C-alpha cells in the first residue's frame, strides 16, 4: 500500500459501540499523501463524515471526505491548491463468513471488505476517496498554457513569449539548402 504511514485512531470503529446505526463527523490531520504522480501536501485538516449501519449479513458504510491539497500542474509544473470532495462506501463482512459469501457469489457487492475481531478501520477508505478525487491531469486552471517546448518558459507568465529556434532534422538539412537556393 502506498500510504501505510497514514493512520488515525479516530477512523477505527468498535462494532460493539453501537446498536443499529452510527454517525460521526471527525477531523484528522496528516502531512502528506502519496499519489500516483507525486507526494501532495495537505493544506487543511481532513473532515470525514461517515455513517455505519448494521445489517443482517454485514455492516454498510458510506461517507464523505473534504480537505485541500497542494498539487503540481501537469502543464506548467507550478504548485496550486485543489479542494478535495470525495466519497466512499463499503460493505464489511466478518472474515469468518468469507467462504459462505463466496459460495453465494456476491457479485453485486463490488466494495466488500472482510474484517476480523470487532473493529472496522476506515483509513483505507478515506485514503482511497482522497486519491480518487484528485484529477488524472491536475491543472492550475483550465486554460493553462504550459511551458515553452523549446526553452521551458512559463507561457502563463509570459504569454507573448516566442522562441524562433529553427529545429531542422539533420537528414533534411541538404534538402533545405536546395530549397533556400531555389527561392533566391
Automatic annotation (TrEMBL):
<dbReference type="InterPro" id="IPR003772">
    <property type="entry name" value="YceD"/>
</dbReference>
<dbReference type="Pfam" id="PF02620">
    <property type="entry name" value="YceD"/>
</dbReference>
<protein>
    <recommendedName>
        <fullName>DNA-binding protein</fullName>
    </recommendedName>
</protein>
Amino acid at each position: 500500500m502506498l500510504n501505510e504511514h497514514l493512520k488515525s485512531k479516530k477512523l477505527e470503529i468498535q462494532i460493539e459501540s453501537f446498536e443499529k446505526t452510527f454517525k460521526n463527523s471527525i477531523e484528522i490531520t496528516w502531512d502528506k499523501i502519496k499519489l500516483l504522480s507525486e507526494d501532495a501536501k495537505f493544506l487543511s485538516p481532513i473532515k470525514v463524515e461517515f455513517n455505519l449501519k448494521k445489517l443482517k449479513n454485514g455492516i454498510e458504510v458510506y461517507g464523505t471526505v473534504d480537505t485541500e491539497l497542494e498539487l503540481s500542474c501537469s502543464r506548467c509544473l507550478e504548485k496550486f491548491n485543489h479542494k478535495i470532495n470525495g466519497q466512499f462506501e463499503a460493505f464489511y463482512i466478518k472474515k469468518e463468513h468469507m467462504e459462505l459469501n463466496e459460495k453465494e457469489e456476491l457479485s453485486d457487492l463490488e466494495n466488500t471488505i472482510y474484517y476480523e475481531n470487532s473493529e472496522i478501520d476506515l483509513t483505507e477508505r478515506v485514503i482511497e476517496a482522497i486519491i480518487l478525487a484528485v484529477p488524472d491531469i491536475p491543472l492550475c486552471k483550465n486554460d493553462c498554457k504550459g511551458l515553452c517546448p523549446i526553452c521551458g518558459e512559463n507561457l502563463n507568465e509570459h504569454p507573448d513569449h516566442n522562441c524562433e529556434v529553427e529545429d531542422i532534422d539533420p537528414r533534411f538539412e541538404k534538402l533545405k539548402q536546395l530549397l533556400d537556393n531555389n527561392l533566391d
